[in-house]
Design goal:
Helices cover 25% and strands 22% of the residues. It is an alpha+beta fold. It has a single domain, classed as 2-Layer Sandwich (Dihydrodipicolinate Reductase, domain 2).
């Protein structure tokens, strides 16, 4: 989601709506979906589709063609599939190679390469500059994932207000944005108050 929101210029925002469905593990401590399909609408009538049947990666489709990118053989967990696409060129390809190397104008944005996010994070601490993935952008990407997950759990269309960080007029969906802490000392609201951050 971070790459998708960056590409749309929505790093500090989120979707307008989500329609999703999923099957979830049963009799298990996890709340993880097994199969899923989610469609999120963003400003500018841009649709983001998440589906368990898609190749692990992100595909951009526009009037100028298609670009696919992934982390190649990198995996977050051992069960993650390796991103290979039949008849394509690996983890980065385009329907037209010319769109992989566009001439960026003065308003264009380039995402700084980061061969090592961990090192970049440590360097940012030392330099006191933002890392390649600033926490505000990361939290918005995770928020979009949570919006999709709640849509999967409820199985109906939900309207999201990214400014208010809540669903429009949907008490059931909004109740799923937080959960009761296992112990009072784990309650994030209390932690924030004690730290004088809320």
């Amino acid at each position: 989601m971070d790459n998708a929101q960056w590409a749309m210029g929505m790093e500090l925002s989120g979707p307008l709506s989500v329609e999703a469905k999923a099957e979830f593990m049963k009799d298990d401590v996890w709340t993880v979906h097994t199969t899923y399909h989610a469609e999120m609408m963003y400003p500018g009538n841009i649709k983001v589709i998440l589906d368990d049947k898609f190749t692990n990666g992100i595909q951009f489709e526009g009037t100028g063609g298609t670009v696919f990118c992934a982390r190649g053989s990198e995996r977050v967990t051992k069960s993650d599939p390796v991103s290979t696409v039949e008849n394509k060129k690996g983890p980065l390809w385009a329907s037209n190679d010319k769109i992989l190397y566009p001439r960026i104008g003065p308003e264009g944005k380039i995402w700084m390469p980061s061969p090592d996010h961990y090192r970049n994070w440590l360097e940012s601490i030392i330099s006191r500059k933002d890392p390649i993935a600033p926490v505000e952008q990361s939290s918005r990407s995770l928020e979009a994932c949570a919006v999709a997950w709640i849509g999967m759990k409820l199985g109906r269309k939900l309207m999201w207000d990214a400014k208010k960080e809540m669903f429009n007029g949907d008490k059931e969906a909004n109740a799923m944005l937080t959960r009761k802490a296992r112990k009072p000392e784990y309650d994030i609201a209390l932690i924030m108050k004690k730290a004088k951050l809320a």
